[in-house]
Amino acid sequence: MSRTRLRDLSVIEAAIGINSGLSEQTLMNAAARNGDDITDVISDASSSRHSNASLGDWLAARVEVLDPTYRGPWTTPALLRENARIDAELGAEIGASAGMSTMTGVSGLLSNLANKHLEQGYANSGAASSLKKLAKRVLVKDFKKNTALRVGLGDLLGPLGPGGEVKSTTLNEDQTEFNIGIFARSLTVTEEALANDDLGAIEGAEVMGAAASRTEELEAASLFSEAASAAVSGQPSSGEFFFGTNAADGQRANYLTGSTSALSIDSLSAAYQKLKGQVDRSGDPVDLQPTHLITTGANEVLARQLCTATEIRPSGATDRDAPISNPFAGNLEPIASPWLQSARIVNPLPDGAWFLAAVSRTTAPVILAHRVGHERPTVRVGPAAPNQLAMNFMVRLDFGTALHDRRSIVCSAGA
Hints:
With about 425 residues, the chain is of the alpha+beta class. It contains eleven helices and 14 strands. The strands form four sheets. Strands 1, 4, 11, 12 and 13 form a five-stranded mixed sheet that branches. Strands 5-14-10-6-9 form a five-stranded mixed sheet, with helices on one face.
C-alpha cells in the first residue's frame, strides 16, 4: 500500500474531526498519548480543500487504497457496503498491514473520532464551577472495597534525651473506605443517518463526554448535600456526622448555624477561623490554608465579590461608612455549583448554604477515584442488535466518590 495514500486517509479523518467540532489541541493530545507526531497531518486537514470533508470522502479514499479495482457507484450507502465487504474478506490483514486506526473500518473511524469528542466534552464541561476541584484523586485496580489513608505523626519532634536517646513515636492513620462502579449509557445511530453523512453521531459523543463529567459532579454534590442535611436534621445517614458544631460531643467543630451564618465578610471570617483551628489527634494545629468558597447559584455573585473585591462593606454598613480592606481578595477561589441544588439529589441544599474548603496535596474533603487505565470516559462503537441496521455508541466511566477529611471543610447553614 502506498504510504502517501494512507496519509491521505489520516488527513481526511482529522479533517472530519475538525469539521465536526474537535479542536486541533484535542487531536494533538490524543496523538501525543499514542506517541505520534501528526502536526503536518493536522495542518493539511485544516486547509481549505478539506473544509467539507465528510464520512463519504473517507469511505471513498479507503476503498481506493484497499480495492483499486472498484468502479463505483460512489454514493455513501454503496461505499458503506463496499467497506463492509472489504472488512469481511480481508479482516485482520488490513490492520496488520496498515498499523493505523483509520484502517479498521467504519467502526474504527467512528470510535476514534467519538473518543476524541468524548474527551473534549469531558474536559470542558463545567470546568469553572467544578466540585471536582475539591477532590483528592485516587486510582484503584478493581471494584472491591478500597481504602484511602490519611497518615499523621503521633507526636512532634523532641530534643535528644540523656545519652543521645531519641524517643520513638507512632503513625496515626485515619482511613476512608470507598468503592468505584461502572457508569454507562448507549446511543444507537441508524445506518441511514450514517449514509446521509450525518456527523451528529460523532458530535453526540461530546455531549456524552459532558454527561460523564456531570455525573461525577452530581455524585460529589450528593455527598456534600447529604452531609449538610444530616447536620441540620441530627440524623447522619452513615452513622457519623461529617459536619458538627461541638467537638466535645463527638461531632466535628466545622459547622456554622443560626442567624449569623448567612454568607458575609463576618461569617466567612468565622468559617476561616474554624478551618484554621482544626487540630490533629495529638491536639496540634493542622495548619490548613483555606482555598475555595463553595456556594449555590443563589450566592454566586456575592461569593465572587468576597473572593475578588479589594474593599468591601461589612454587615450593617451604610453608604456613608467607608469600605474596609478585604483580607480574602485573591486568596480564595469561588465555586458556584448548580448541582448542589439538583432535583436528582434527595436533600438539595437551600439557597443560602455554603462551604469553605482547604485543598492541598495531602488533604481534601472528598475522594474521586477512577480505575487504573480508565481515568477518563471511553466509547465503544460497534454494530447494534442483529435485527438493526445501525451502529451502537456505548460510553463508560469507572469511578466512585466518598467524603474524606472532615478537617478540610466548614459548612454554613446560611441562616
